[in-house]
Amino acid sequence: MKEERKKMSKQEQLQNLLGKLRAALPELREIIVASADGLPIAQLGESEIATRLAAMAATAHGLGKRIATTTHLGDLMEIVVRGNQAYFIAYAIGDKGILGLTTPAGSNLGLVRLEAQEYAKRLAELL
Amino acid sequence: MEPLKVIVTGPVGAGKSTLIRTLSETEVVDTDAAATEAIGKATTTVALDHGTLHLDGHLLHLFGTPGQERFDFMWEILSQGALGILLLVRADRPDKLPAARNILDFVRSRAPVPYVVGVTHLDRPKVWRPEEVALFFGTPLEQVVGFDPRDPAEAARPLARLLELIGT
Predict the structure, then answer these.
(1) A-chain residues within 8 Å CB-CB of B74?
(2) Whole-number Å distance between alpha carbons of A54 and B114
């Protein structure tokens, strides 16, 4: 397993991880990994919106961090944008980037949160 | 006192965040993230900067935008309700002037309000003087102000000019 991993490029490893996340949460639509300054690093889903979503994830995350410090919320843990049809949820990948997801309304958010945080940790090791 | 909303915009590295940090009388809200591109500095604004100051009897709310085009949705959001635009450009980076013009056109199409072009980094070797920048934008020279956004005495000058143009 380890050797197999070595042979894979970083991009392949990222795609591999996102694929596993999608397998764990099949209802996920977009899955993106963005740098903290809003550049797309990896994605699963519609490529046309991934670039835009990466920039927006960085904006939402940057602003969320500021709201968290200004209002003494402690460290920012997640950003949730709730539409009447779906959610956009973003998690920090350590200080290296952001994992952004869209998932339909009615998704099990507790499960999404558990899995996403776990994968954010794995992504942090990879980036 | 009715607060005046001013949008501070321009390409990356022009000095937007620096200007707001220099001038603000209230704690600045900034949203810096580590830059992963070679933009000549370690961090970049991803959402907005916000600061306030009193100038010539007015309370100004300064909203600084991100500089990169991928954040153009923030240019649009921050343009709403702006009464004046301060566009910052680097005197030593004439290659970025087309990007600056693009931002100015974008913001003015949403907020058709008076604007001033602030020219920064004039202390570098090989710069475009404010007169040349004015020619590039086709802007009257009185709307173009060369200044140092790090200097508290100078940083308010383009905003004072903007207030005159807004005619408050």
Answers:
(1) 59
(2) 32
